[in-house]
Amino acid sequence: MSQGVFTVKFDSNIPDFGDGLVFIKDGSVNGCDPHFLYQGAIPRESGPFKSQITVQQWRAGNTHVFGGTGSYILETNGTIDYERGEFILHGHKQDEPGLKLTAKGTRLTDVA
């Protein structure tokens, strides 16, 4: 099943960390935490992938995992395994490749 609600934990090399929820369905990924939204594409089948994830601040009061505010594009490489219900990705901020992030997701339930 190539969909689900995933809990995601991420950390960066500055170092900072966070967590949120990600909803994967029909090749799209949408997620959030208390201050940021994440949107992008992800493959419908298990395996390696490359993607761009847009991270957009929706509420003031905290910085993103790279220590700033506002929006940015995350360039990612990862692997998703729908059968096991997990993914891992490594990425960097598009305009600052030295700012790196690792995210790990675990499926909580299916998406309706």
Compute the CA-based radius of gyration.
13 Å
> Which oligomeric state applies?
single chain
Largest sheet: 8 strands, antiparallel, barrel
Average pLDDT figure: 95
CATH superfamily: T3SS negative regulator GrlR
> Which CATH class applies here?
Mainly Beta
The fraction of residues in strands falls at over 45%
Find the structural class using helix and strand composition: mainly beta
Give the domain tally.
Answer: 1
Helical content (DSSP H or I, runs of 4+): under 10%
How far is the N terminus from the C terminus? 12 Å
Order of helices and strands: EEEEEEEE
Residue runs with pLDDT of under 50 for 5 or more positions = none
Question: What is the level-2 CATH architecture name?
Answer: Beta Barrel
Helix run count: 0
Principal-axes shape call: globular
Question: What features would you describe in this structure?
Answer:
The structure is a single chain. Helices cover 0% and strands 64% of the residues. It is mainly β. The protein has one domain: Lipocalin. An eight-stranded antiparallel beta barrel has the order 1-2-3-4-5-6-7-8. β3 and β4 (36-41) form a beta hairpin. It is globular. The N and C termini lie close together (12 Å).
